[in-house]
Amino acid sequence: MNKTICAISTPYGVGGIAVIRISGPDAIAIVDTLFVGKTTLKQAKANTIHYGRIADLDEGMVSIFRAPHSFTGEDVVEVACHGSLYIQQTLIQRLIEAGCTMAGPGEFTRRALANGKLDLTQAEAVADLIASQSKAEHDLALSQLRGSVSSEIAVLRDRLLHLTSLIELELDFADHEELEFASRDELQAVADEIEKHLVHLTESFKTGNAIKNGLPVAIVGPTNAGKSTLLNALLGEERAIVSDIQGTTRDTIEDTLVINGILFRLIDTAGLRETQDEIENLGIARTQAAIEKAAIILDLSPLPTSPYRGGDIEAERKVIRIINKSDLMSDAQKAAVDKEAVLISAKNGDLSNLRERLVAEAQTLLGRATEGVCITGERHYEALMRALTSIRAVQQGLAQNISGEFLSMDLQDVLTALGEVTGQVTNDEVLSNIFSKFCIGK
After folding, report:
1. CA atoms of 244 and 160, how far apart (whole Å)
2. What is the pLDDT of residues 246-283, one digit of tens each?
3. What pTM value is reported for the model?
4. Cβ(21)–Cβ(86) under 8 Å?
């Protein structure tokens, strides 16, 4: 961390402006050798912006941030120049010649983590914020960056440390049976409270994952119901092949769509019918798998007939019955459509009612995310599941009145798992894997 690093922080390519970031103990001194302004950067106050010539290449603005009050916790300089590729690349070359090292993926954020400016959940939220594709995903990443998950984990760790200290005191004064630092009932109550919080966090992963990767929506129904036409109409492009030939769609086709700030992952499926075609049957099997994974099922029928149910559908999956091909229906047929169904013409692109219904159902399903902390990372989920298993072992041990030594071991396992979420317990391999997915310059 004693090296001074540099990188282009704006996307690669020609643009109006490019930003080059420099961080490290010699950041200000190195840029000072390339910058000519009204004053030297060494004399500049923190959090100030200076205009001048940059390395005889360009004229631009230089922002100064002094340690520890910067993103990385080190001295940081950000150079805003014109977005010419020649200017960007030549300036990076000059910075390296002056003593900088080229930054690796996520190295600025990794330094912020090492210097205590962020914990690991907040660092990961930086990448999620950059990659966000919808308002819901943006809002969730921003909440995590501001410490929503970190604060929840901190509360749990405090409760665990209190519980651990009481058990450790019992062990230290085991020879004094008359001393009781906490009754088993009190310890059980604390363990139960922690278990309840962990259950809430692990259950929030399903919602968080849906927000991050898109709420899975399966379009199902018989052959020639217009499923592929509906997918194309929703996306506004010819994503799936449309044909009057039954069984044209043999495999699931996926794409994403944002409506009112909500990311949907649409899945077009093979038509459901009895067939002897081996390949088509494989497609139908994948349709069944898509139904199992979907949060919302668009049950498409070409006429106001009974909807396809596909066996037992769990309560958390919302089925929206859709009657397609309204352009071919008589007024009497339209009047006979069930009020709960959505009447559309995928061919004519008349989908406003369906879009409104999708948004309404998604807001109901995702509403939990705005009511409290919501996790989105598989790494977080796996660590929290280990913590949940260990705290349940503590609960069982308390109920069976086992030795405090064994309870203490299980509690340490919970603390370790929670520490892995925020980065208090980690290793270089895990960190390298996480930050390798970041863009260079962040």
Report:
1. 63
2. 444 445 677 888 888 888 888 877 655 444 455 544 55
3. 0.75
4. no
Backbone angles phi, psi at 27, to 5 degrees: -60, -50
Instruction: Burial-class residue 399 by CB neighbours within 10 Å (0-12, 13-18, 19+).
Output: exposed
Find out whether 343 and 321 touch, Cβ atoms under 8 Å: no
Alpha helix (H) ranges present in 214-267? 227-235
Count of CA atoms in the C-beta half-sphere (13 A) of 437: 12
Sign of the CA dihedral with 153 first, then 117, 122, and 124 last: negative
> Comparing C-alpha atoms, which of 120, 123, 89, 92 is closest to residue 108?
123
Bridge partners of residue 298, in order along the sequence:
219, 320
Per the CB < 8 A criterion, the answer to whether 204 and 367 are in contact is no
pLDDT in tens, 327-377: 777 777 777 677 778 888 878 877 888 888 888 888 887 765 555 688 888
Question: Cα dihedral angle (334, 337, 341, 345), rounded to 10 degrees?
Answer: -20
Q: Which two tokens stand for residue 343?
A: 């009447």
Q: Report the C-alpha gap between 16 and 92 in whole angstroms.
A: 18
How far, in Å, CA of 211 to CA of 230, rounded? Answer: 23
Q: SS3 of 183, please?
A: coil
Q: How many CA atoms within 13 Å lie on the side-chain side of 165?
A: 6
For residue 342, list its beta bridge partners. 322
In this structure, the dihedral spanned by the alpha carbons of residues 167, 173, 175 and 181, taken in order and rounded to 10 degrees, is: -60
> What's the rounded Cα separation, in Å, for the pair 301 and 322?
6
Cβ atoms of residues 121 and 145 within 8 Å: no
- The residue ranking higher by pLDDT, 199 or 283, is 199
Tell me the CA distances in angstroms from 316 to 205, 297, 301, 345, 365, one per residue in order. 14, 11, 22, 28, 8
Q: No. of H helices and E strands in the chain?
A: 14, 13
Whole-number Å distance between alpha carbons of 103 and 74? 14
pLDDT at position 33: 94
Q: Please, what is the end-to-end C-alpha distance for the chain in angstroms?
A: 15
Which spans in 214-277 are helix H? 227-235
**Structural contact between residues 262 and 215, judged by C-beta atoms closer than 8 angstroms:** yes
Say if residues 217 and 294 touch (Cβ distance below 8 Å): yes
Q: How far apart are CA 397 and CA 400, in angstroms?
A: 5
User: Which 3 state secondary structure label does DSSP give 53?
Assistant: strand
